[in-house]
C-alpha cells in the first residue's frame, strides 16, 4: 500500500450556515500500489475550489446534477494531475490529465475512462488554466453568453456582470466585449477589484456595491439601459439590475452565490415586483447548465486558448499552496476574498 494525504468533509455548515475551514479535515490514508486494467495512477498537481461546492456540503444539494459530499469521505471536484503509471490505452506515464471528479488527495487511482488528456502547449504550459479560463469556468462564461446572452456584433448592447471579479465574472465581461458588446460594466465588492476590472480586464466601468447607491450608479453608467446581464450572485444586486433592463433583454443565469448559504430552490424565485418587470419586458431568465452543451466543448476550449495566447483574455488566479490549506481557501473564496479563480497547488 501507498501512504497518501487526503481531505474529507469533517462537518456540514448547515443549510443556512457559512462554511469554515474546519468543515474539512486533512488525514492520512492509503491506496493500493498496484493498478488494474483500465486504471491510471495519478499524482495530483492542482485542485479547483468553486462556489457551487457550497451546495455539495449540504445533505441535499438542491440540484439534480450535483451529488452531496459525505461526512468523513474524501471531497472531490475539478483537478489536474500527472500520470505515474497507466494500464489504460489512452494514457502513458508523464501525461497530464484532468477530471471533474478528482479526489482531494495527493495521489489517486482513477478509472482512465473518466480522464481527459491535456495539451499543455495550448495554454503555454500554465496547466492550472485548464481548471479555469481554459476549462469549465471559461466554458461557462463563453457558452452562457453565446447560448443565453444573445450578444450580436453591431447591436450596440450594454452588458452588466455581477460577481465580476470572480473566476467566471472576470472572464464573462471580457468575452462579452469580444463577442460584440459595446459597453461592459462590472459589479464587485472592493475598490481594488473594481480598479482591476477596468485597468486589466477592459471593463468600461465598475461599481463597488458596498459603497454608494448601486441603482443610481447603474443608471449613470448604463444610460441606455441593460441588454445582457451575466448574473453570478442573485439576491438584491440582481433585483436592482433587472429593474434597469431593456425590453427583450437577456439574463445569463450563471450562479447565485449570495443565495448559496440559504435554503432556497435553484434558481431562486424573484420577488413578485421584479418578476412583474421581467414578464412585462419579456426578459429571458433561463437556467443555464454548461454540462448540457458538451458537444461544443472542444471548439470552445480552443477558442478560449486562442484568446488567452493572443492576450485578448486576461486571466487572474489566486493560488494557495498545500492540500492542507484547501479548507481555508474555500472559506476565503466564499467570503469574496479572491480575484479570479481559486486554485490549490498540491504538488509540483
Automatic annotation (TrEMBL):
It comes from the Eukaryota. GO terms for biological process: prostaglandin metabolic process. One of its GO terms (molecular function) is 15-oxoprostaglandin 13-reductase [NAD(P)+] activity. Residues 169-262 form the Alcohol dehydrogenase-like C-terminal domain. It is an enzyme of class 1 (oxidoreductase). Its EC number is 1.3.1.48. Pfam families: ADH_N_2, ADH_zinc_N. Its main location: cytoplasm. It is found in: Cytoplasm. It catalyses: 13,14-dihydro-15-oxo-prostaglandin F1alpha + NADP(+) = 15-oxoprostaglandin F1alpha + NADPH + H(+); 13,14-dihydro-15-oxo-prostaglandin E2 + NAD(+) = 15-oxoprostaglandin E2 + NADH + H(+); 13,14-dihydro-15-oxo-PGF2alpha + NADP(+) = 15-oxoprostaglandin F2alpha + NADPH + H(+); 13,14-dihydro-15-oxo-prostaglandin E1 + NADP(+) = 15-oxoprostaglandin E1 + NADPH + H(+). One of its GO terms (cellular component) is cytoplasm. The keyword Lipid metabolism applies. Keywords: Cytoplasm, Lipid metabolism, NADP, Oxidoreductase. The keyword Transcription does not apply. InterPro entries: ADH-like_C, ADH_N_2, GroES-like_sf, MDR_fam, NAD(P)-bd_dom_sf, PTGR2. Residues 6-117 form the Oxidoreductase N-terminal domain. Monomer. Belongs to the NADP-dependent oxidoreductase L4BD family. Functions as 15-oxo-prostaglandin 13-reductase and acts on 15-keto-PGE1, 15-keto-PGE2, 15-keto-PGE1-alpha and 15-keto-PGE2-alpha with highest activity towards 15-keto-PGE2. Overexpression represses transcriptional activity of PPARG and inhibits adipocyte differentiation. PANTHER family: PROSTAGLANDIN REDUCTASE, PROSTAGLANDIN REDUCTASE 2. This is Prostaglandin reductase 2. The lineage of its organism: Eukaryota, Metazoa, Chordata, Craniata, Vertebrata.
Amino acid at each position: 500500500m501507498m501512504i497518501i494525504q487526503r481531505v474529507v468533509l469533517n462537518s456540514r455548515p448547515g443549510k443556512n450556515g457559512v462554511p469554515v475551514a474546519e468543515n474539512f479535515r486533512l488525514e492520512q490514508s492509503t491506496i493500493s500500489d498496484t493498478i488494474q486494467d483500465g486504471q491510471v495512477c495519478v499524482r495530483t498537481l492542482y485542485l479547483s475550489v468553486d462556489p457551487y461546492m457550497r451546495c455539495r456540503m449540504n445533505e441535499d444539494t438542491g440540484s439534480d446534477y450535483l451529488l452531496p459530499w459525505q461526512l468523513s469521505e474524501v471531497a472531490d471536484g475539478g483537478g489536474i494531475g500527472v500520470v505515474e503509471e497507466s494500464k489504460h490505452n489512452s494514457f502513458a506515464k508523464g501525461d497530464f490529465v484532468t477530471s471533474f471528479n478528482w479526489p482531494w488527495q495527493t495521489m489517486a487511482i482513477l478509472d482512465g475512462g473518466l480522464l481527459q488528456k491535456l495539451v499543455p502547449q495550448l495554454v503555454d504550459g500554465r496547466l492550472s488554466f485548464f481548471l479555469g479560463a481554459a476549462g469549465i469556468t471559461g466554458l461557462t462564461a463563453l457558452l452562457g453568453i453565446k447560448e443565453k446572452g444573445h450578444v450580436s456584433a453591431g447591436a450596440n448592447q450594454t452588458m452588466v456582470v455581477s460577481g465580476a471579479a470572480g473566476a467566471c465574472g472576470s472572464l464573462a465581461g471580457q468575452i462579452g466585449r469580444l463577442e460584440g458588446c459595446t459597453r461592459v460594466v462590472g459589479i464587485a465588492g472592493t475598490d481594488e477589484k473594481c480598479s482591476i476590472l477596468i485597468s486589466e480586464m477592459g471593463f468600461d466601468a465598475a461599481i463597488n456595491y458596498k459603497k454608494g447607491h448601486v441603482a443610481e450608479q447603474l443608471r449613470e453608467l448604463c444610460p441606455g439601459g441593460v441588454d445582457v446581464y451575466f448574473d453570478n450572485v442573485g439576491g438584491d444586486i440582481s433585483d436592482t439590475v433587472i429593474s434597469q433592463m431593456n425590453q427583450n433583454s437577456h439574463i445569463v443565469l450563471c450562479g447565485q452565490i449570495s443565495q448559496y448559504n440559504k435554503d432556497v430552490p435553484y434558481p431562486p424565485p424573484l420577488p413578485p415586483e421584479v418578476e412583474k418587470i421581467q414578464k412585462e419586458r419579456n426578459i429571458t431568465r433561463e437556467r443555464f447548465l454548461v454540462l448540457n452543451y458538451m458537444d461544443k466543448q472542444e471548439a470552445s476550449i480552443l477558442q478560449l486558448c486562442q484568446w488567452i495566447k493572443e492576450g485578448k483574455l486576461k486571466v487572474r488566479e489566486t493560488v494557495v499552496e498545500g492540500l492542507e490549506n484547501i479548507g481555508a481557501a474555500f472559506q476565503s473564496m466564499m467570503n469574496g476574498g479572491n480575484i479570479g479563480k481559486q486554485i490549490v497547488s498540491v504538488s509540483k
